[in-house]
Predict the structure.
Amino acid sequence: MKKTTYLLMAVISALFVLSWILKAGSLSGETDNYVIQGFLITFSAFLTLSVLSFLYADNPLYKFAEHLFVGVSAAFWMCMGFWTTIVQNLIPRLSDGLSSFFEVPPQPGDYNFFFFIPVILGILLLMRLSPKGGWISRWPLAFIIGTTAGLNFVRYLRSDFIKQISNTFVPLLGTEWQGIGHFFSNLDLSASGQLVTMAANWVIFLGVFCGLIYFYFSKEHKGAFGAASKVGIWVLMLTFGASFGYTVMGRISLLVGRITFLFRDWLEIIS
Amino acid sequence: MVYKLTLTLLTFLLIAPVVSAQETVAASVEATVGDPPMIDSSLIPAPPSDIKAVDTDNDHGHSITVTWELSADDGSGMNNVLSYEVFRWVPFLMDELDTLRVELARVAAEIDSVGRLTGELKDERAVIWAAIDDMADQMPEAHRMYPEGGEWRLLGKVASGVATYDDTGGKDRKVSDFIPDFSDLYFRVEAVTSDSAIRAASGVAGPVQSYGQWFNTGRTPVFIAFMFFGIMTVFFVIKARRGAELYVRPLAGIEAVDDAIGRATEMGRPILYVLGLGTAADVATIASFTILGRVAKRVAEYQTELIVPTYDPIVMSVAQEVVKSSFSDAGRPEDYNEDIVYFVTQLQFAYVAAVNGTMLRELPATNVYMGKFFAESLLLAETGALAGSIQIAGTDEIAQIPFFIVACDFTLIGEELYAASAYLGREPVLLGSLKAQDYAKAAMILLAIVGVVAAQFEWNWFIELFHVVD
Amino acid sequence: MKRQIPLMLVLVFGMFLIFQYFIPHETSEKAYEFLLDWITIIGIFAMALAIWSLFRVTVAKVRTRKENWGYSIFTLVGLFSMMIFGWTAPNGEGWGWYFIFVLSVLMAIGMLVQTMSVKSGRGLWAGLMFVFLIIAVLIGIFDNAWSFHFMSAEPLENPMFRSFFDFVLMPILATTFSLLAFFIASAAYRAFRARNLLATLLLVSALIVMLRFNPYLTPIFGDYMARTSNWLMNVPNLAAQRAIVMGVGLGIVATALKVILGIERGYMGKG
């Protein structure tokens, strides 16, 4: 490592300790564990700044935070999974004996012995670790993929196919169409008028139409077909732009939240 | 023997007080309903007529739908009907069952408070369970005794103007809303006025039995779509197998994949493949596996390095399987190593932090993002762009597509991700299914056009064809 | 055989789930509920595989002294300390030798990794590992201030588990999330260099939505910005969303069907 790196590390460590002392001092009246609390808040701020430093460039502080984050979060999920799924959901349904052993109230049901099947499948999955028995771990994977494929098949056939088709069923001339003569003699150009509603209905319908044409794979996109497909991608791009702009504004508020933590909870500059 | 004896004793001990209490209640009910004091008979509304009770359609049983003709004094005539009360004839055996349930709840509470199941409590529970099952099995018999050994009970009320009531109960005999299947049930409806003593009863509907159906007719449209889709797919797959030429239009994002692998080889830098945050339950992830397989095969042929950090344990297992098979298909099983596909963590932003770090340190020539992505899409794609990698993305998450479009060189939009597997493999079978997909799209457009016309001219029958029961 | 059985499983379970949707009968409902629970349970077994993979890759980095290997130590520290916290809890107010225990377990793991890494002098490291292990075991047996829990979920209340969540996981998580605000700025910049018609369309509609409430532009455009942005969100956006949803739905349905029928086997490594 270079000399400047050492120097920087020393400065950061010194600042860390200084912040710890100051923070602990300011907390000393409020809580008994002010030394530990002071450390935790300082450490938390240190991690926040480490992650923010990534904006400048990849650096040792970010690497430290990132690696720590990965380890802690993986273990966190494992513990939560163990306690919430295995101990609280699986064990109570497996057997009364196991429930007694794990000190959880059993959940009786008529066919609880069926829960041994996923346990067996889970053990088959663990066979991956053995160099010879790896192939048998495909069975539980096949089970999961088959089940969820079937599930998704009907779910999307209903929600994205049939429901979306019926959603396009909008009267293009509006619900109050009384003939072309009536329409022109009562022409209304206001935003809530018939003309505007009608135009919106047409744009939506044609937008869906052209959008679907754009996703047509097995026909060459030229001629009228190509034109429709081109309009389709334009509509898609307009939408992506709008959604992009919408999200940009939303994300700014996240940053505001983090800056508030630094200035209020740690530095106590704002209240 | 001892077991049966205990059972009988317990049942007797539990039931005796209840039955006597019931008799008092029944007597008091009769006193109020049967002998109304001082009623002006001219105010009694016309009774609901034509009462019918049928098994509720498209369900798992345990439910009866009761319908009737409104009273002549509901909405017209004297117009004094305020509501309808629906009654079912319930055998007293049902109350005995209730007592057992109370007893079961007590034992369950005791188990909870002890925190575990002791031998004693377990035996006690088993006795009650057996008694409940025994009693529930007697339900059809008890209902056959109508009108002996039971009484009319109020189920619920509906407002005036409503002429239907679903008596829906549970299937669990251990819960109090249990309605036995295959038992003769009897129903009655009373029109009630603002003075609850002034009422008029319909005739009795029944016997009717509830039972579960084997086909939900409310979901017929989905079934038709399923058949249409299935037949189309099989048809085009067979056609493609016979060697029919199928055209597919070029997709830039797909063609870029092969180029990108070549580029990585030339530069001697790795390829990073991100499967997204989806689980193996997401079809987008399954589509991504196919693309990964293709990429891995090429990588093995070119002997380039591949990095696949994963988010979900099962996705990791499948991806390892995919990459391993691809390496042996490419004739290089010895180059495969279990650490090509590895697990990072199952916390969204921890995963992002780690993958971002990998991008900046390993400097992959190409980053491929295929699958389900959420807020992390932008963090990944921007970091990759800053690192100077060629980026190819594909997702069906509408909200994330814009970020990929902005920061990646090629983006597969929505359905293109699912078409990618057919493109990459160039196998006739997969191309055939793509054709089926296109025909389904054409059908969608056609139906939409007809539907728009139908909506204009109010052909409601056509719109009703698309109604699916949830 | 190795491929046939998994394909059969996919077909059987996939078809079952499809037909199940049309069968309202009790038996079919029950089977459906069981299958969904099974998937969750198998997932927990997969978690063990995943943690093993993380551990292996991290240790491999340390062993081979790959670039930046030093940071991998923090992953191991985070992983194992969080795991210890997730399965232990203090019995009362005091902590006793708890932290010495955690430290010696971590040291023992470190020594194990070191033993695996070095080419010569393994005996020394292995010896040290045993020393730390013995210290940990002795504390584990004789210290009554805290205890192991594998049965009742008390460790989830362990103050250390909580603190790691509040002061390590949360700050990094929230800050990484807030990085989005900065990244979106650079993404917006990237969008500004619109290269073609499509990118320009995206940019224009993004700008309209982003600047819709901008007070400086109101005198120039009046409320036209807000109205155009509203129109974009309600009309073309609706059309494009619908077209995409329909296309995606078809893609999902077709892929699921191909998987079930065994036409697409990419997930088993056969493209």
